[in-house]
Design brief:
4 copies of one chain form a homotetramer. The first copy, chain A, is of the alpha/beta class and 332 residues long. The first copy, chain A, has 2 domains: 111 residues, NAD(P)-binding Rossmann-like Domain (Rossmann fold, 3-Layer(aba) Sandwich); 174 residues, Dihydrodipicolinate Reductase, domain 2. In chain A, 39% of the residues lie in helices and 24% in strands. In chain A, the strands form 3 sheets. Chain A has a 7-stranded mixed beta sheet with strand order 12-11-7-10-9-8-15. Chain A has a 6-stranded parallel beta sheet with strand order 3-2-1-4-5-6, sandwiched between helices. Chain A has a two-stranded antiparallel ribbon with strand order 13-14. In chain A, strand 1, helix 1 and strand 2 form a beta-alpha-beta unit. In chain A, helix 8 packs across helix 10. The longest helix of chain A has 22 residues. Chain A is globular. The relative contact order of chain A is 0.15. The interface between A and B is large, with 41 and 41 residues.
């Protein structure tokens, strides 16, 4: 598969490493900043794509991987679809839900394979949780707890364009809740606060929040999101069912234990999010390549992205309305 | 200290064991069912109190321990106060918050030492969490998660008079949230469902719920309550602060690990709640005896009981209103 | 059962607590130091035995519990047997193996129920390990690792009369190895050193040792003994069999975990050995009382004590001989 | 660095992956089986070396990586040294200790950089243990426990040429004991048995063994080796010092925990040794490349290999002699 990688920033560089290591892929890089594109291309002995026209040229590429800034996703998706290229797109499709629906519908109409990068679905432990649910080992899912805590406040400039904690951070976990339970979100309640950095309120945002979701099966979901911990990157998921409970535990950055007087010290969590989730990017890419090769629809789909985004919309509304907000139906 | 134990049912028997083992206490037992009183008294080589008049006779007793049915607490409290006896009372003071306030005010006016049995405050691990908060080791508390999951549905007859999951089960954790954070509850949101036994809805109750509370310091609190797990009795608390996080982990009923092909099996949780919290009852009793002897006000006070109950009221309202409900101020 | 407790020192006081709490026992106390006897007796509202003649008077007692100094055990055992009393004896029967055999034979000839206090057999986790072995879940036992590490050097005066690390400390674990595996010790090799306190060598003793034992089934056993750790009291056992492995993990003195930057801190081990093994004394006593009442031979028997002692003899010899030493057969 | 990889079997293929991924290396492959060499070369887009003469041609290569069968190591090492090439050699230099010494001396005399692949030194957790020792955090090392348990019996043909459990399996841990403690082995005692497969005795070998080593500092070391577990690949190290204890825990193959009635099930150990130690090979290679580039002696040296081998010799002797065997001095 010939892939045009669009975007050579941090996340683009992550994809570049995985594209380079994938046995069935060759790729070239585009970035509006040509120096940046060149730097990534050189690191992997591959080429630079001179223009977006070239990146979307079906004679040169079979697929595009969209890792450019969020505000460009929609246009690139549309163009890829029009060119008949398979497309692997960083989330979200667009911060505006209506625009995201529109573009998703357009891509669907063109019939090209399209996948949104909810990379956490490719975490081995989360996949294991899902298997346990689907196998019936846990019985009916009744309660799910998801924890998402980042190690440090993002820059305020990022906050300003991020769409807020629900759309930017919690959205991954809204998706995981659906994916693991196999149920659809119905309504949402949320409390939020600006505890790590009060300036975040100037952007109408919060840095600490607790969200509860009722699913179509009656299952309840709790999500706690924190932007800044003092102890590294922390995520975990717990699924309580009628026949048992399972959790994907926190990961530790080493397996050494020290025993001293009155205390036992173990290695801490990963300092940053990337160390924790790194392997999921390669696995997601491989799932995309495999799906396209086998002619099956890649998953998670753009529609999956829309649903998670609709939960984020409802949660964002609930933060200020003081009401339980319904999750709107976003798929046809 | 001479104690009249009022109530010789399950919880009365628990108190009897601890009263018997306490070096500074001697006690007799009253129960409306004389046979039951006799049985408990015989087990500990102590006497039966013939009547309530005797139980509240200051010539015979210094204190009463109220472990009778909930609907009798208020009257017994009032009578103990009028007799000038110290009083240790099972929670709640009364299921009706107004009546509970009234009685608490009456007891306060009489000036007798009074303590409500929020026994979990005497759990070593929870006390350790609180110490970590008070010492500043965790910085400002920002997020607290409390899990309370019982091993089996209570009988429906119990459900009918319990006041519902918030007043009966969650109330302990509302109290712990206050006690550990040192902050006051401000507003509450909740989602609940009848997943373990749908018949519970006939009593206007739920068996599975997620509750979020905003505290006066801005800290957010999440509580998940489940009436029936498939894996024993499960409670844990996690406190995330600006300078670190701490958790009181689940307890295991043994420390044996078995390693087999592809899996590691450890001893499970306690099958029932009592095994888990047993030591807290003796510690609570000792705290009461010590406070009375030293002439300091016992803690938790009846007023502490009222606040936790006010949160339960707000949470119960939130279950059906679909709104974030304010916690009413209940203390003068 | 009427019990004469002989010895009111530390371990005698431990037994007194359990005797007092046992529903089927009443007891009085003897000690050569009458003040000490009185102090223990008063604490439990029981009587002082005026003389050894009284302690061994079958008209007054059904059993004796020997918790006096080691050098008196043999004589007390003999006297109890002659008086037809059941006897529960602290280990060892006698530091001299020949004398211990002689006395054990004498007691056996008299036919009185006799039990040696290898209290660790009554640890729940160790009993669980044994069950796993006996149920066949672990297959054939092939390798056992036992760790015994005390928190602090015993006083040198104690070391002088203790019989050395093998007879005093390791002996419990020699017994556990037999009891858990169901196999008999055949030969022993050992290395030892005086690392915590070099003065111990003046008593021909070591404070740190590693011992390996070959069992009759071919299974290999490793025991590491340390007199002084910097991290509290540490014991654990691991059993590797052809069908699986199981371990009785270290115990922690609390269940709180603190997460900080780059590290996770948990509660430490128990500071002293007694906190760790406390419940085993009551369970051992109850096993003795039950066996006597039901007319079955109490276990562990004096013969069990002899075998463990014979391993300790061989291990002590191996420390200096530089040879693998055979374990002598000590039972008829 | 231009590297000739000699040997394209399993371990050669492992090295090929790491050579391919190393930014500062390019490599070609030699194997007496040309098809095998071709297959590995093709996988990484690199070339096949036609003959050993070519592999040792300093005009074509800067270094050789010897991953061929054990009986060829000595000759290849000698030839590399004579050609002035840096050399990275799989362990052991030669199963015959005298021959290994001779070759090591020859390589030393030629002055080429040479490293033996004790890859476990490059395990992050073991390096962490060593750091803790060197920093003084653990005080003086007093006792070390090393566990090495493979998941399945090697084929008997392999056993026949392996040199036995001590030289083949335990040798890695003899090296780690030296490396972590910074002390030299003095004497050794060992017990062994054929429990997993009695046929191994026909090769004078054992499959289960316990070995104790006294180090030059007085520290004691225990090593247990098992060829076949029922629960996957198990290795761990524990270091007890005068100021604390530290352990490198077993690794788990996943972080999911399932809670059921009376038990908690976690993911098991790695099924095979390679999954556990995989990252150490790349780190060892990088250490070699870095040392050569910086002109410092690579570590572990051939002399380190000799010392570990001398311990294995003594341990092998102790298995049958029933004596504590001295470790011979093998370095000049």
């Amino acid at each position: 598969m010939r892939v045009a990688l669009i975007g050579a920033g941090f996340i683009g560089s992550v994809h570049a490493v995985n594209l380079a290591a994938h046995p069935d892929v060759r790729f070239d890089v585009f970035d509006v900043d040509t120096t940046r594109a060149r730097s990534v291309a050189d690191r992997h002995g591959t080429g630079v794509v001179a223009s977006l026209d070239d990146a979307f040229d079906p004679a040169r590429f079979d697929a595009v991987l969209i890792a450019s800034s969020t505000d460009t996703h929609a246009a690139h998706l549309r163009r890829a679809a029009d060119a008949g290229l398979a497309v692997f797109c960083e989330k979200p499709v667009d911060l505006d839900l209506d625009r995201a629906r529109e573009v998703s519908a357009h891509v669907a109409a063109r019939g090209v394979p399209a996948m949104v990068d909810f990379n956490r679905r490719f975490d081995r432990d989360y996949a294991h949780l899902r298997e346990l649910v689907r196998s019936g080992d846990l019985g009916d899912v009744e309660l799910v707890q998801l924890t998402s805590r980042g190690p440090s406040m993002p820059p305020l400039e990022y906050v300003a364009v991020s769409g807020g904690q629900m759309r930017d951070q919690a959205v991954h976990f809204f998706d995981l809740a659906r994916w693991i339970t196999g149920a659809e979100p119905v309504e949402v309640t949320a409390l939020g606060a600006a505890l790590a950095d009060p300036r975040i309120t100037e952007h109408g945002d919060v840095d600490t929040s607790v969200t509860s979701v009722r699913m179509s099966t009656g299952a309840l979901v709790q999500i706690d999101c924190v932007r800044r911990t003092a102890y590294g990157y922390d995520e975990r998921i717990e699924v309580h069912g009628s026949a048992g409970m399972a959790e994907a535990r926190r990961h530790r950055d080493g397996a050494v234990t020290r025993y001293g007087a009155g205390r036992v010290v173990e290695d801490g969590l990963h300092p940053g999010w990337f160390e924790r989730v790194r392997p999921t990017y390669a696995a997601a890419l491989d799932a995309f390549v495999t799906a396209v090769r086998e002619g099956v629809a890649p998953s998670p789909s753009l529609a999956d992205g829309l649903v998670a985004q609709a939960v984020a919309e409802a949660a964002t509304a609930a933060l200020t309305s003081g009401r339980t907000e319904p999750v709107l139906t976003v798929t046809p």
